[in-house]
Each structure stands twice: as C-alpha cells, then as structure tokens.
Amino acid sequence: MSTDTSRRAFIAASAGAAGFVALAPGVKLMDLAQANADPDVASGKVRWGMLIDTTKCATGCSDCVTACAKENAIEPGSGRPSQSSQWIRKIELKEKTGGHRELSLPMLCQHCANPPCVDVCPTGASFKRADGIVLVDRHICIGCRYCMMACPYQARSFVHEPLHNQNPEVPRGQGCVESCTLCVHRVDKGQTPACVESCTHQAMLFGDLNNPDGEIARRINTVTSSQVRADLRLDPGVRYQGI
Amino acid sequence: MAANIVYRELTNKRAIGLLLAVAGLFIAGGFAAHLTMEHHGHVITGMDNRIVWGLPHVFAVFLIVAASGALNVASTASVFGKTIYKPLAPLSGLLALALLAGGLTVLMLDLGRSDRIIVAATKYNFKSIFAWNVFLYTGFFAIVGAYLWLMMERRMNAYAKPLGAAAFIWRLVLTTGTGSIFGFLIAREAYQSALLAPMFIALSLSYGTAIYLLTLAAACAIDDRPLGDAIVRRLKNLLATFVAASLYFVAIFHLTNIYFTRNHGVEYFILVDGGIFTGLFWLGQVIIGSVLPLILLLAPKVTRSRILLSCIAIVIGGICQMYVTIIGGQAWPLDLFPGFTARSSFFDGVIHSYAPGLWEILLSLGGVALAAAIVMVALKLLRFLPERMDDATLDPSQSGKHTT
Amino acid sequence: MLRRAVTFLAFITLAMLAALATPAAFAESGRVPKPVIDIANPGQCIASPEVMRRTHMDLLKHQRDKTLREGERHAKISLNGCIDCHASKNNGSVLGTKENFCQSCHTYAAVKLDCFECHQPKAAKIAGVKP
After folding, report:
1. Which residues of A touch B41 (CB under 8 A)?
2. Cβ neighbours around B282 below 10 Å, total
3. What is the mean pLDDT of residues B98-109?
4. What part of A 78-117 touches B (C-beta under 8 Å)?
5. pLDDT per residue over C26-49, tens digit each?
6. pTM
7. pLDDT at position B377 over 90
8. Which residue, among B121, B108, B118, B103, has the nearest Cα to B38 in the 3D structure?
9. Hey, how many other C-beta atoms are within 10 angstroms of the C-beta on A123?
10. How far is CA B132 from CA A27, B62, B108, B188, C27, in A?
11. Cystine design at A160: which of B43, B94, B133, C1 (Cβ 3.0–4.6 Å)?
12. Between β-strands A238-241 and A48-53, what pairing exists: parallel, antiparallel or unpaired?
C-alpha cells in the first residue's frame, strides 16, 4: 500500500542520510590527513642518515666526540671511565694482514632500519621514529640493559649516577639507557647533528637518505660505501667510506 | 601403594628460628644493597657499560632456571604417573615458587629504575623475549600456586593431574624463554644459538633436582623425619641422568662453535686463555659441577653423604656456569671490523674485566636467602612435608631391599 | 550474623570518617605548610589554575608521547615551556627550595616527582641553552 511503501522509503532514506552524515566527515578527515603532511611531525618519507668518509677522518682528532659531549651535556662520571656515557667514540683500526693499513672513524648509534635494540626492549622504550631515528623513551625505560646486550655496535650507555646539569633539550637521567639521538632536538629545528657540524676535516655528512637530489644520496650513489656489520642485515642509516 | 601418608608442619622451632634469623640478616643486607644502589646509582657497583649484567644476574638466572627444574619431582608424579613421588610433590611446587621469587626479586631490584616495575607489568613489546618472560613468570606463580592447592586440598586431588601437565608444559616454555634471552642475541659471539634453550632446560632439571634433594634432606634432618633410601636412590638416578644430559648439551654447544672459524676467538677465550672464565668453566662447571657428581652418583657404593655432596657440587657448578655464560659472554669484545684490530676510548677490542662489588654480592645473596626463608616459613606454617618418607611408607614393595 | 555484619560495617564507616577528618584538622592547624609559590613570570598559563591542578599530569603524560615518538615540537603543552614561566626568580629552577613551583605543591600533596630525574629543572636561559 502506498502508506507502507512511503514509510519504508522514508526510513531507508533517513538511514542513508544518517550513514552519510556519520561517514562523510571521516572520509573528509582521512583525505585531509594524507594531503596535509604536518611539518611539525616526523614523517616516514624522510630517512635521516650519515655518510662518514674515513679517508678524511684524522687519527687522534676527536672533535666530534667533544662536540657531542658539549651539546648533550655529557660529563665524565665520578666512577670508573667505563661507567661514563659515551654516545660517539673514535675507533682506531689496524688491518691484521697485508700492509697493516691504519685508519680511524667515529662509531655511534647506527640508527638501523631493523634495530635489535628495539626488538629486545621489554617495554618498548627503545623505539624507531618514523624518520628513522632510533631513540630511548626514558619515560618508560626500566633500565634492564637488555638493549645494551643486543646492540652489535656497543652504541648504548647506561647512566650510572644521578645527573644534574642536563641540557633542557636533551633529557637524560640515572637508571635509564641512552645513546646517540642523531641530535634529534637539532634535526627537528632544521639543523645538523653537533658532531657533523664540528668535524673540521669534513669527514661527516648528514642528510635525508630518501631524497635523491640531496647531497648524501648523490654521494652514496657515486662513491663506494659500506655499512658496518652489514651481514647482520640491520640496514644501518650510517654508512662509511674507505674501510 | 603408599599407605596413610600424614603431612605435618615442621615443628623444630629452634632450628628454624636460627636459620630464619640468618636468612633475615642476608635479606636485610640485600635490601640495604638495593636501597644504596638506587640512591647512588650503579656507579657504586662493579658493573659498567661493558659488563652490564653482573653478579645479580648470575644468581637471578641461576635461581630462575633452578626454579623450573625444582618442579620436576611434582611433574614426575602428576604427568609421568610415578606415584611414589606424589607425597614429595608439594615440597617440589613450593620450592619452585620460592626459588623463582628469590630470583625475580634480585632481577627486579637490579633494574636501573626499579620504581618502574608497574611499567614493566603494563607496557609490552611482544617482539621481546623479556616481555614474554614477564607473562611466563607471573603465569608460573599462578599455575603452580593453583597446582599446589589442588595437591594439598584432598577434595581437589583429582584435578591435580591436568593442571600438573599444564604446569609441566608451562615450565618448559618458561625455561626456553630464559635460555632464549641469550640465544636471541645476534650481536654476541658467545650466544646467538638456538641450542641455548634446550641446554637451559637440561641445566634446569639438573640444578632443580639437586636443590630439591638438598632441601628435602635438610627439612627431614631438622625435624628428624625418616627419609628412605628408595626415594633417595630414585632421585639420585634422575639427577645423574640430568647432569649427563647437561654435559652433553654443553659439549655439543662448544664443539659446534669450535667448528666455525669465526668463533675460534671466543671459544679459545672461554676454553683456554680467558683467565677466570676458563678456570670457572673447567674446574667449576665441568669438573666440580658435572664430572665429580657423575662419579659420586654412579659409583657402586653410593652413600647418602656422597649424594648430598654431589648436589652441593652441582649447585657450585651451576653458579660457575652462569658466571661463564653471562659475564664471560660480555667480557669478550664485539668484533665490529673483522680483519682489523680495534682500539678506542670506549674499550673496543679489549677483553673486559669484572670484579663484583660488595653491593652486588649482598643483593645476590639476599635473593638466595629470600628463597630459603620462603621455604622455611611455608614448611613451618603449612603441611607440605609428609611425616615419614621411609621405604615402608612410600614404597612398601621395596622395603627390605638394599640401597643402590 | 546480620548484627555482626552491621556492627562491622558501622565500625568501618566510623573509622574511615575519622581518617578522613584527621588531615583536614591537621592542615588547618598548620602542621603541613601550604604551598608558597614564587614564579619568575606570573601571567596566563595555558589553562586556569583549577584545570591545571587537576589535569597537568595527564596533559604532560599525553603530550610527552606526541613530542617524543611523533616529533611534535610546537604544541601548546611543553615541559620546558612550563619551566620557563614557572621557574623561581631566586634560583631559576622549579626545584630546590620549598618556594619553588613544582616542589612546593608536590611536597604538600606528597606526590613524588619523577620528571626531574631526567629533565632539567632550571629554565633554559639559566641552564645556558643556545636558542
């Protein structure tokens, strides 16, 4: 009958309209979210990395180490030297065979794409940001040091005593594990890490590995470079030239 | 068939009071060590950025591994149907819980941020075997606690068997998880092996049964309860099997590692020129911990004192094994640049040494004392132990036969 | 049975009322000093004091993940922003004496402060940070 059909039609139409009203804003927002890459938020489109030219790196120079310590307010501790934090260090290498070639290079957190430290952290405090920087969330780090056991580069340090002179932009504290943050507080402001900026021999280059026009990607495409312990397939973001 | 088994609390107040007082001292020392470490930081310990897990972890992992093995006697009764062990099962469950509690306490109090245990209990990264272990350990407490209740509450005895089977499987998973803490570490040459999980299971059976025997003998001695040779002989044979199995896994682990040229460095370090680690491996783990017990247990004329001596030797060997595994594995430097020798301000390329400080020693012993105290208090308050465990009560068919 | 239950409940209620009454009595008598706050830059906070007193811990706890894990840097809520305004004129910090902002209220409320195990309690200008 006409009344029933029109009632059904009315209900169907209302349901359709209600559904549209409910879903449409969501669709519109999703559309907006993809279109609007918030510059204030770390993006997966970028992958920060470094290229270190060991042929330019000078034996005996530790400018990068000094700059890192200054920027991140890392002071020697009151205990043994092995209990002090070291986010970047110079390693002096000597080849065992052949001509016993010598070289030196800075070793820091490699900011791997498949970080073992992130895999083993029980609380998820060790994590990788969307732009590839591997960080420790000291709000939930319980100080178990498992990530220190897992890191193949011995890049992590444990804070052995209370700290008081932190840089306000680099929170760090007793009982938590820490490592090179790639100066994330500087990178987010558009600057480069302190070690790169301080290198007087121009041995360190920092940039977006995903940007084909950027200097770092162009150089990696032209010169021979390698990753340390590449056989572990961790895909570090730090590459070395001349090893 | 075991006749009327009567369970009774321990009654020797003097002895228990004395032992508890001693344990209490060590527990207080452990707690004081924790408070001091939390206040001053780990700078007051012997641990550093190279040896990140020290003596507390050695003892904690030993206690945790022994805990799962201590449940074995109960499993043999419930799961494998050896009814002669049934009266001994409640003590087995209790010991498992106490050892796990002691080990976990040391582990949790050694954290850099022990005040964040709630965080560890609520935030999980399920790719981490540590996160799984949190579930496995707490689940173990729940399952074994329920299992104990089913065993000790007459009306519920019928349900003990299925839960016993669940507890058995759970503890296998738990020990696999503990072994995998090391087995999953690709970075370190001393670990990175799937064999570590089954090795830890064999070690757990060995350590747990040894500690069980020692506890059983001690409890019976305190209260003057007869302990028959039938049951001790059976436990002795089990123990010998477990020690042999452990030795087998250790041998295969090292033999395989030696086969790979790239592991020659770390194997030579552990087996030949690692100083204290080599000493602890050969003298502690192999000779005292495995060969001596096998000789004592399998020789023709086995006496009660020899069995107990071998149990003590197994425990000593177990601590040595954990020291070699945990600290030796960290002492060997990582090889970032194969083919090069390395030197740095962060101790690349050098073998790291470790000297436990007073605070770590106190914390470790505190955990052992806590486990002991839990067992003593429980035995004093509740009826875990039969009044008589002589041959006539446990296994009438065997009484009158010669021992061994 | 019922009488026992009622007696028990009455006892518990009285005990709770007594417990609740006690701190109020003590506070009025001045046993626990009320917070005295010395701020370098008084003015408008990001929300009213009533709202901030109740919610600042939740705001910080939520924002910390957005900043750390997502890299959101210019949010309204920022711990360093709080410290820059709330640090004391005397020692340039939010900790140190009972007149300092965070410390005085947290001592009064007996709530442990975890933030400054890692975060710098001194305002950026005093701590010597380059802009």
Report:
1. 159-162, 174-175
2. 17
3. 97
4. 78-86, 89-97, 107, 116
5. 555 567 777 877 777 777 889 998
6. 0.89
7. yes
8. B108
9. 24
10. 38, 19, 16, 21, 47
11. B43
12. parallel
pLDDT at B404: 40
Q: Residue A96 is nearest to which of B50, B116, B341, comparing CB atoms?
A: B341
Selected residue of B104, B118, B124, B125 to mutate for chain A interface (largest A Cβ count, 10 A):
B125
- Stretch among A14-18, A33-37, A207-211 having the lowest mean pLDDT: A33-37
Q: Which of residues 157-186 of A touch C (CB under 8 A)?
A: 162-163, 165-169, 171-176, 184
Chain B residues near residue A118 by CB distance under 8 angstroms: 125, 127
Subunits in contact with chain C (3 or more CB pairs closer than 8 Å): A
Neighbours of chain B (3+ CB pairs under 8 A): A
pLDDT at B289: 96
CA gap B329, B333 in Å, rounded: 9
Which one, of B321, B311, B309, B312, lies nearest residue B284 by Cα? B321
Burial of residue C35 (number of CB atoms within 10 Å: 0-12, 13-18, 19+):
middle
Distance between start and end Cα atoms, chain C: 73
Nearest to C69 among A137, A175, A176 (CB): A137
Which residues, other chains included, contact A189 with Cβ-Cβ below 8 Å and sequence gap of 6+? C73
Say how many C-beta atoms besides its own lie within 10 A of residue A145's C-beta: 21
Q: What is the mean pLDDT of chain C?
A: 83
* DSSP code at position B333: P
Residue A234 burial (C-beta neighbours within 10 Å; 0-12, 13-18, 19+): buried
The CATH code of the domain at B7-394 is 1.20.1630.10
Chain A from 187 to 206: CB within 8 A of any B CB: none
Mean pLDDT over each residue of chain A, to the nearest integer: 90
The number of beta carbons lying within 10 Å of the beta carbon of residue A154 is: 21
Maximum CA extent, chain B: 72
pLDDT band at C1 (very low <50, low <70, confident <90, very high): confident
Indicate which of A40, A48, A70, A170 best probes the interface with C, i.e. most C CBs within 10 Å of its own CB: A40
Residue identified by tokens 């998820």 is A124
Instruction: Give Dmax (Cα) for chain C.
Output: 73
DSSP assignment string, A28-78: HHHHHHHH---TTS--TT--EEEEEETTTPPTT--HHHHHHHHHTT----S
Both tokens of B188, joined, read 């370190």
Contact check, Cβ <8 Å, C120/A162? no
Question: Three-class SS of residue B260?
Answer: coil
- Can you read off the two tokens belonging to residue A166? 């932190």
A122 and B134: CB-CB below 8 Å?
Answer: yes
Domain boundaries, chain B: 7-394
pLDDT band for position C98 (50/70/90)? confident
Percent of chain B with pLDDT over 70: 97
Per-residue pLDDT, A72: 97
CB pairs A-C closer than 8 Å: 62
Report which of A220, A238, A218 is spatially closest to residue A228, judged by C-alpha positions: A238
